[in-house]
Automatic annotation (TrEMBL):
Biased composition (Basic and acidic residues): 264-279
PROSITE patterns recorded: ABC_TRANSPORTER_2
Annotated protein name in UniProt: P-loop containing nucleoside triphosphate hydrolase
GO molecular function: ATP binding; ATP hydrolysis activity
Length: 300
């Protein structure tokens, strides 16, 4: 059961609010079965869960990619699906694993690919505060003269992140974006996000499997187990963290429990079917083309 946190900002409007969210992709079983969460402005919330728990789906729902009821998901008091201004204005920003889609999502009128330099890409975004841009280029150590086609994955990721942060968002949704960054780059970025939250009241929801150094960073947690929000609220819900426990160890305990329960269920089902289940070929319920781009990478 999710434990809601009362919004702490002055106007009483939460940065992010989910109320009994349920969601299924067309023709599929529910990916999100029950999720409630209330994040005040200035939160840095970690979205945690095993593979397939629903993190990307939840972030995309928060970003307004799929339609749900107006009151089921609100960002800054508005429905991200119905209120296009939220994303068009840059108030709500999404950074995910798909480079081309994110840049397109951010609505930047710049070429999305081709043999151009990082500088051309970054300076092609209009209406940006030059000081913010310079600070981000420095923070992310972007070589403005290097061509995108010659960059490593991590270098290209830095350009992507730079582009995504050029405009000062109020709510930022991030899906595993630091995965191919080096230690220093990741640490500097986390420090930057902390100052964005503390100084501007920005709110961040960050899905990751890398928990290194996040114990002191995180203010809120959202733990999804197979589409259900098991824990959702302030970090005080995890008193272990204040007692010096590592987030990795806390999460490991949750995921091991999940895995055991899942395997016990599978064993029971197999026993009940007299072992026939294993012999029955399973028809694929989804083609590669139905899958999110991060999974599609395997099929390219
Ligand atoms: N486009 C889609 N169509 C149908 N089912 C989908 C689609 N995208 C995801 N799913 C299913 O929804 C569930 C949640 O997937 P999701 O990608 O949100 O998980 P996740 O927590 O982000 O996983 P990971 O840690 O592996 O990135 C999974 O069962 C997945 O198979």
């Amino acid at each position: 059961m999710a434990q809601a946190v009362v919004a702490a900002n002055g106007d009483g409007i939460s940065a992010v609010r989910l109320e009994g969210l349920k969601f299924s992709y067309p023709g599929c079983a529910a990916s999100i079965k029950d999720a409630s969460l209330d994040l005040p402005r200035g939160s840095r919330c970690l979205l945690i869960g095993a593979n397939g728990a629903g993190k990307t789906t939840l972030l995309q729902l928060l970003a307004g990619k799929y339609m749900v009821g107006r009151d089921v998901i609100t960002v800054l008091g508005r429905s991200p699906f119905h209120d296009l201004q939220l994303t068009c204005s840059g108030q709500l920003s999404y950074l995910g694993t798909s480079w081309r889609k994110d840049v397109a999502f951010a609505g930047y009128g710049v070429p999305l690919q081709g043999d151009i330099t990082a500088g051309k890409m970054i300076f092609g975004v209009e209406g940006v505060d030059p000081e913010r841009r310079a600070a981000l280029i420095r923070l992310l150590d972007v070589d403005l003269y290097q061509r995108l086609t010659t960059m490593s994955d991590g270098q290209r990721r830095r350009v992507q992140i730079c582009m995504g942060l050029l405009k000062p968002y109020d709510v930022l949704l991030m899906d595993e974006i630091t995965v191919d960054m080096d230690v220093l780059g990741r640490q500097d970025l986390l420090d930057f996000f902390r100052s964005e939250c503390e100084e501007r009241g920005a709110t961040i929801v960050y899905a990751t499997h890398i928990f290194d150094g996040l114990e002191g960073w995180v203010t809120h947690v959202a733990y999804l187990e197979d589409g259900e929000m098991r824990i959702g609220g302030a970090r005080s819900l995890l008193p272990q963290l204040s007692e010096g426990a590592k987030l990795l160890n806390v999460v490991e305990v949750w995921l091991r429990k999940e895995k055991q329960a899942r395997q016990a269920r599978d064993d029971e089902r197999r026993a009940a079917s007299g072992g026939r289940e294993e012999a029955t070929p399973v028809a694929p319920s989804r083609t590669p083309f139905d899958m999110p781009s991060k999974h599609l990478a395997f099929f390219r």
